[in-house]
Amino acid sequence: MAQVTRTELFPGVRLTSVHTNTFKSCVLGAQFLSPLAPETAAANALVPSVLRRGTEEHPDMESLSAALDELYGGSIQPVIRTRGETQCVGFLGSFLDDAFTLDGSAVLEPAAALLGELLLRPRTQDGVFCSDYTASERSNLVDNIRAQVNDKRSYAIKRLKEEMCAGEPFAVDRLGDEAHAAALTPQNLWERYQALLRTAPMELYYCGTAAPVRVEAALRAALKDLPAGERQAVPSQPTAHTAPAAPKEVEEALDVTQGKLSMGFTVGGRVWDSHFPALMLANAVYGGTTTSKLFLNVREKLSLCYYASSMLDKFKGVMLVASGVEFDKVEEARAEILAQLEACKAGQIEDWELEGARRSVVSALRSTGDSQSRLEDFWLGQMVAGLTEDLEALASRVEAVTREEVVVAFSAMTLDTVYFLKGKEA
């Protein structure tokens, strides 16, 4: 059983330490938490990529790679994620756990030191970021933003979120937008980096065999030069969102051969609410598993969709449905997707559907502890939400959810926005 310890190392700098003997590698990460905003999202996303290009001690990627090779071939990579209306940017590293080094040498302390070096001592030019590094990584960021349209399934969900929550932070993409990204310079990016250092809460993460007190000491030493600015708390509760009187309808035409029908619902609950486990189970019954109503009925039985699934954003309190359809079947598919929801609201859920969904959710939660990356991702979400509940406790709550609670969860679901990506000739 993993032991989880939460500690505040410095004001606004917190560490989640997961002490476990399950893995042969350890994970070490540091994330700046920043409210999602169109003005800062692209700059925040670019900062870790530029930092990763070189430091004072290791001025280029070649020397950084050599330093990582010395740590048994460890890795430290930039990561950019969103959790609800919070943008999480920083680094995630993976190293051989100290318990498995050939000569008993320590990896944790030098790995933490290298992480601190990347965060606090970048290579500079004229007092700001190097122009070559900034230009190269800015170009990569712009390319990545433009390339999002190539994955039509993900693009349709991205556009659904933009339309459904227009004007709200939730609509802002994790990479920001192309215009703000293209306008970044070494100077204004440096200013944004300094603002993150001084004002952004920082979440640190460790998972491995080292005792929590040792992890704390290693990271305190690595981050001792972190500016002691006033760190602003990230709002734990997202912007309130109310479904419109009538569902918003949006169509977009691109050069596609398969339509993408995406539908957004408000669900009346979020991760902080006591009935959240019932929402998790409701989503699984509706479209979150291969035994769900959308998968078995809309896709398999009626063949109205190439795929049909639902996902719950536990921070914002919305459920998003993604489906791939033939252009001439979109209305029929839409009607059936909504009909399945109405059946759930009416309590038309077979015992095997409910218990299959429950087993799927509980199994997914408990198996999270078998994966380093999924475990880190779970705890990042808990950190952002300010929650301390572990996987087993959440799984136990899901196991206790009743049929009546699931039906109540469904009753709060309201269609908000429909986005359809059609072909140019459709």
From TrEMBL:
Segments forming domain Peptidase M16 C-terminal: 184-360
GO molecular function terms listed in the Swiss-Prot or TrEMBL record: metal ion binding
Disordered as annotated region, ranges: 230-249
Alphabetical list of InterPro entries matching this protein: Metalloenz_LuxS/M16, MPP/UQCRC_Complex, Peptidase_M16_C
Gene3D superfamilies: Metalloenzyme, LuxS/M16 peptidase-like
Domain of life, per lineage: Bacteria
PANTHER family: INACTIVE METALLOPROTEASE YMFF-RELATED (PTHR11851:SF186), METALLOPROTEASE (PTHR11851)
Stated name of the protein: Insulinase family protein
Organism: Candidatus Flavonifractor merdigallinarum
